[in-house]
Amino acid sequence: MINTSIELPGLSLKNPIMPASGCFGFGREYSQFYDLGKLGAVMMKAATENMRLGNPTPRVTETESGMLNAIGLQNPGVHTIIEEEVPFLAQYDTCIIANIAGSTKEEYERVAYAFNDVKTVHALELNISCPNVTAGGVQFGTDHNIAAQVTMAVKKVSNKPVYVKLSPNVSNIVEMAKAVEAAGADGLSLINTLTGMQIHLPSKTPVLANKTGGLSGPAIKPVAIRMVYEVYEHVSIPIIGMGGVSTATDVLEFLLAGASAVAVGTANFQNPYVCPEIIDALPTVLKENGFRSVEDAIGKGHGI
Amino acid sequence: MINTSIELPGLSLKNPIMPASGCFGFGREYSQFYDLGKLGAVMMKAATENMRLGNPTPRVTETESGMLNAIGLQNPGVHTIIEEEVPFLAQYDTCIIANIAGSTKEEYERVAYAFNDVKTVHALELNISCPNVTAGGVQFGTDHNIAAQVTMAVKKVSNKPVYVKLSPNVSNIVEMAKAVEAAGADGLSLINTLTGMQIHLPSKTPVLANKTGGLSGPAIKPVAIRMVYEVYEHVSIPIIGMGGVSTATDVLEFLLAGASAVAVGTANFQNPYVCPEIIDALPTVLKENGFRSVEDAIGKGHGI
Amino acid sequence: MRKEPLRIQQKHQIAKDTIEMVLQNNRVSKCAKPGQFIHLSVNGHTLRRPISIADVNKQAGTVTLLFKVVGKGTSALANLHVDEVIDGIGPIGNGFPIDRMQDSTVLLIGGGIGVPPLYYLGKELSKQGCQITAVLGFQSLNYVFYEEQFRQLGETVIVTEDGSYGLKGLVTAALPDKKQVDVFCTCGPVPMLKAVTSNLQGVPGYISMEERMGCGVGACFACIVPSNNEIGYKKICKDGPVFAVGEVIL
Amino acid sequence: MRKEPLRIQQKHQIAKDTIEMVLQNNRVSKCAKPGQFIHLSVNGHTLRRPISIADVNKQAGTVTLLFKVVGKGTSALANLHVDEVIDGIGPIGNGFPIDRMQDSTVLLIGGGIGVPPLYYLGKELSKQGCQITAVLGFQSLNYVFYEEQFRQLGETVIVTEDGSYGLKGLVTAALPDKKQVDVFCTCGPVPMLKAVTSNLQGVPGYISMEERMGCGVGACFACIVPSNNEIGYKKICKDGPVFAVGEVIL
Ligand SMILES: Cc1cc2nc3c(=O)[nH]c(=O)nc-3n(C[C@H](O)[C@H](O)[C@H](O)COP(=O)(O)OP(=O)(O)OC[C@H]3O[C@@H](n4cnc5c(N)ncnc54)[C@H](O)[C@@H]3O)c2cc1C
Ligand SMILES: Cc1cc2nc3c(=O)[nH]c(=O)nc-3n(C[C@H](O)[C@H](O)[C@H](O)COP(=O)(O)OP(=O)(O)OC[C@H]3O[C@@H](n4cnc5c(N)ncnc54)[C@H](O)[C@@H]3O)c2cc1C
Ligand SMILES: Cc1cc2nc3c(=O)[nH]c(=O)nc-3n(C[C@H](O)[C@H](O)[C@H](O)COP(=O)(O)O)c2cc1C
Ligand SMILES: Cc1cc2nc3c(=O)[nH]c(=O)nc-3n(C[C@H](O)[C@H](O)[C@H](O)COP(=O)(O)O)c2cc1C
Ligand code: FES
Ligand code: FES
Predict the structure, then answer these.
(1) Closest Cα to residue A218, out of D68, B198, C167, C238?
(2) Contacts of C46 in chain A (CB under 8 A)
(3) Labelling D40: which of A115, A291, B209, B293 has CA 20 to 30 A away?
């Protein structure tokens, strides 16, 4: 028997697979396809203090082996999420990770604080890296001092473990990771989307109404693997890896690079069953590659 | 008749298409496939002061809609290039752009200086962005002060127009572009490769001997388009765009984003005839989209 | 909702760049309602393509899709062969509320690739005793399809932009008098939807909308349309693609 | 050098995971030399796959490739059907210098997917009056291929790693006495090449090498092997894949 369970701060995962934030809503839709209790965890769509309507449409477009999105953090606001969405997800035997975002440090604090009394939320994912919001987002995610300050502020008000989600759009990912680790982060999420653009030839304007969007999908996997690998060598907090995962072998690649768990984003759109399929395939892939457990594989791409 | 010619500092291009540095050697091999005189220009493989042997193998691997390479600037050294390679290329009716690299500012200066007397080389491309060399490369390419210093130093010793090739692995591409423009760059090349990694499951180590490599190909095109678009709005020097180009419509997308000419890299490996095929298709694509010339299309993705 | 294998039973080109595909899948054919769509996977493509259900044969266990080849995805679909299997999620969305239209006089207004869902709708409405009038707009003669099929449902007016067939102009030029219409149903590009709803102001109507989609099931917030409801928006894939006039802000 | 369309004339599985493909292209068949390879395009893949020419029929205008399905590219190739066309660049590279081996006793040593180029080589050497001995190593019985074909060229020893067929062990265990060999030609994984050349030290020999390739034509510097020459390296795709022993540093 291959042991796929893994213990991370705040998260007792039965397996290391979770849908990535923003690619799974609050789980309702995918619960039509399968029992969400199968998942290691669910990363909810970003929560901000108040309801946000997000960017104008078009908000998504396809690229080679990937896609661009500029949703703009649309969400019903943290209080509605806590009242209406968390209870739905909490019916399932899975961990819940709340992705939190804001335009100011204070907004991050208030959103984080709002989850304190929500026992069914196991951890926070601090989204300082959304490329699609003008205030906040990018600046927080690309300046290591500001990233550290937000992390520290959230840690102070929150009673949950905090995973900081880093932006890949930086010169030095290790510096960012070390800064938020020093600021008290319990874990890291790597990576958010790369900022990209596509121009629509017939209209001669960017396809996305927001002009730029976040590039996700298999196209970015090599960048994600590189960042997880580099960061793993410089931090001691666990990493949730993501970026282009669509198979159990992709998951193993992330584990070898140093991730302790793996999120699946864009691939849900292509195949709504991708998470349970990966969960079913993972033990065999681990076994074929000589591992007895998920734990066993973590960081094994770094040699001895 | 669609006019595909374009005038850039030092370069009278009959068309805006040129093979990208490192993907075409010094032209000899591809001259077996077609007349290099068809090309707008050729960007030669990087030249360093002395011969370099580069990284151990494996040096390339395939990724989804892309590839990783870690050649490590292997080249015969600037003097051999000038004596043996430039004269070969100079037989053809095309512009020659010399890509120059180094580990120190002084090496860049000496390599640039060496081309001063080579009349057949029309411009320099200053490669401050190669992710695959440990000394130099990355630091030069990700710190805007150092990038500006190298640019200034090279401009001082060189009598050729200098196009600075920027790395996409930065938090703020516009800041980099403005810094090198202020330092005297005559043009920009955007983008070099994104740093990535792939892990080989059977051996549980990175596929590339150098561990990390540069991601190129269609996968990165959205990042390249975004950077060209952003930089175009903030500089007044011309941009040579590149990253994932494999069709004439890709070329038009780069022109709309703000590129004045376009380089084709990885696509040469898949289709050795890709450059002449694009050159043949470009007039029709321009016409179908309502342009009478290449000039006409530049920057037209920015609205009026 | 499930992912379903749809076997291509027939494939025909029925107009310029326009493909008719009859797909075999019992479950989908049994539960498909007019106005719903299927989110089709295309090999080598990250995102699925939403295509409306244009007809259903419950006995044969088939659904018919009509689509125009406009880009890489639709041209890859058009190149598939009979007996190949397409992976589709569906039927998705809320269709036209046909129960509310029993025995009424219904005007169908379709533009280009907005025409397909109206055919299945028209057939079902006919069965319910509705009287159907259809106004269908196309770019030009080459693009006209399903004229005969619509004629069998009721009076049908064809409009082409260049006047190469039927009336010249836009569908709005050919709309009947409001008073003769109990309810209208329309599908097409947003400018057409706007023009139609303003022309038929006061008449109850339903519009079917399009937007670029990610998930196609309501999870990703890609296909939002502004609404006057308390949350300020609707999801086209989940709440639509059919909305009552006034439910969303065009 | 050109990009050539190669039409699949025959396709057979000849051993576990091992495909034999006969491809029609007059020009390639006319000029292919033993040891050269073809750089094959695979739909949906950025990089081409290098595969050796395993046999040639100049009359029929065909070349035969033998390849093992090891990853995505080779499995996509294996799934192609008769009459489909593969786009290949080639023949590429410098093959075995058969002119220099006339009338000699030649030992062929192949390991796994290193066996294919040796077959065409053996056939051409036979024609030139050479006496052939072949030592071919495979993982196990299931993987053995072309035994009969090689037997027709000369004495052939099969070695399997697990002893499930022929001799058990590595090819080096089955090499004949140096004195009986004028020249050897070998192709296989680098550890095998090393072992073989050290075992046959003093005997003139040629080795065919593999490396991950980008361009396949000498432009990208991906497929470098260190050499003692003045520039310090050779390109496998352009200068090789066949090198004289000592020409490159293994
Ligand atoms: C609910 C719904 C029902 C539809 N029904 C039909 C139908 O019955 N027949 C038909 O011909 N077309 C229909 N369409 C439009 C059809 O989905 C697009 O024409 C198709 O997705 C274009 O794909 P492509 O790859 O060929 O084009 P590309 O332009 O290459 O596509 C690029 C991306 O944009 C998306 N996209 C492009 N145009 C549209 C569009 N108009 N709507 C949504 N996404 C788009 C594609 O899905 C893809 O993700 C419908 C769209 C929606 C939303
Ligand atoms: C000159 C030469 C001749 C060859 N002749 C044969 C032959 O006749 N029969 C045969 O079965 N194989 C041969 N090979 C090996 C063959 O090229 C690889 O097995 C094949 O490229 C693997 O592709 P894949 O997509 O199935 O594997 P993947 O592992 O998915 O490939 C990933 C990438 O690595 C490259 N790669 C992986 N393994 C090798 C390898 N051993 N050599 C070079 N590139 C590799 C692939 O080309 C691709 O770019 C030869 C290789 C070379 C260099
Ligand atoms: C449509 C879409 C919406 C997203 N929304 C969020 C979000 O709200 N918060 C967040 O932290 N990341 C968001 N992301 C980023 C993903 O969580 C993930 O980090 C990224 O897509 C890379 O993974 P993938 O390649 O598997 O999609 C979103 C991604 C997509 C495609
Ligand atoms: C194999 C390889 C070698 C390269 N060598 C160089 C180089 O020597 N100098 C340089 O400036 N860029 C080099 N590049 C980067 C390309 O010139 C180009 O910027 C990049 O590959 C993006 O374009 P593409 O997606 O069309 O390949 C190299 C790229 C590849 C794939
Ligand atoms: S497409 Fe994802 S919510 Fe509609
Ligand atoms: S593969 Fe490019 S030089 Fe050999």
Answers:
(1) B198
(2) 62-63, 65-67, 217-218, 266, 269-270
(3) B209
What integer pLDDT is reported at residue B142 of this predicted model?
83
B241-273 pLDDT per residue, tens = 999 999 999 999 999 999 999 999 999 999 999
Instruction: Say if residue C194's pLDDT is above 80.
Output: yes
| Distance to chain A for C92, nearest Cα, Å | 11
Q: Round to whole Å and give the CA distance between B183 and B186.
A: 9
Share of chain B above pLDDT 90, in %: 91
CA distance A104 to C153: 59
Cβ pair B301:A206 closer than 8 A = yes
pLDDT in the model for residue B143 = 87
Inter-helix orientation angle A221-232/A173-182, to 10°: 50
The residue among B56, B67, B205 whose CA lies nearest residue D190 is: B56
User: What are the beta bridge partners of residue A200?
Assistant: A205
Q: Looking at per-residue confidence, does C175 or C30 come out higher?
A: C30
Q: What is the pairing mode between strands B187-190 and D62-68?
A: unpaired
Which residues of chain D have a CB within 8 Å of the CB of B218?
46
Q: What separation in Å is there between the alpha carbon of C223 and the centre of ligand 5?
A: 5
Q: Cβ atoms within 10 A of the Cβ of A3, count?
A: 14
Which residues have C-beta within 8 Å of that of residue C231, sequence separation ≥ 6?
A51, A76
Closest by CA to B210, choosing from B98, B99, B113, B74, is B74
Beta bridge partners of D168: D160
Asked if pLDDT for residue B132 goes beyond 80, the answer is: no
Q: Which chain C positions have a beta carbon within 8 Å of A28's beta carbon? A: 218-219
CA distances from D28 to B28, D34, D120, D238 (A): 22, 12, 14, 17
Sheet containing strand D62-68, strands side by side:
D49-52, D37-40, D85-92, D3-15, D18-24, D62-68, D55-57
Selecting from A64, A169, A300 the residue whose C-beta is nearest the C-beta of B171 gives A169
CB B2 within 8 A of CB B153: no
Nearest residue on chain C to A67, alpha-carbon basis: C46
Angstrom distance (rounded) from CA D242 to CA D238? 10
> What pTM, to 2 d.p., does this model score?
0.96
Q: Which of C89, C212, C217 sits opposite A60 (nearest CB)?
A: C212
Q: Given a cut of 60, is residue B138 above it in pLDDT?
A: no
Q: What is the enclosing helix (H) or strand (E) of B97?
A: strand B95-100
Give yes or no for residue D212 having a pLDDT over 70.
yes
Q: Given an 8 Å threshold on Cβ–Cβ distance, is C219 in contact with A270?
A: no
Q: What is the mean pLDDT of each run of 10 residues along chain A (304 residues)?
A: 95 98 96 97 96 94 98 94 96 97 92 97 91 56 88 96 96 95 98 97 96 97 98 98 98 98 98 98 97 97 85
Bridge-based pairing of strands D3-15 and D85-92 is antiparallel
Q: Residues C135-146: what's their mean pLDDT?
A: 95
Print burial letters for C177-196: b (CB count within 10 Å at least 16), e (below 16).
Answer: eeeebebbbbbbeeebbebb
Strand partners, C248: C227
Expressed in angstroms and rounded, the spacing between residue B130 Cα and the centre of ligand 4 is 8
Q: Is A135 left (phi over 0), alpha (psi -120 to 50) or beta?
A: beta
Tokens 């590129």, residue located: B259
Tokens 């198979």 sit on residue: A247
pLDDT at residue C103 in the model: 83
Report which residue type is found at D22: V
Closest by Cβ to B57, choosing from D211, D215, D216 = D211
Assign residue D246 a region: left if phi > 0, alpha if psi is -120 to 50, beta otherwise?
left
**Of A238-247, B104-113, D124-133, highest mean pLDDT:** A238-247
d(CA A133, CA A131): 6
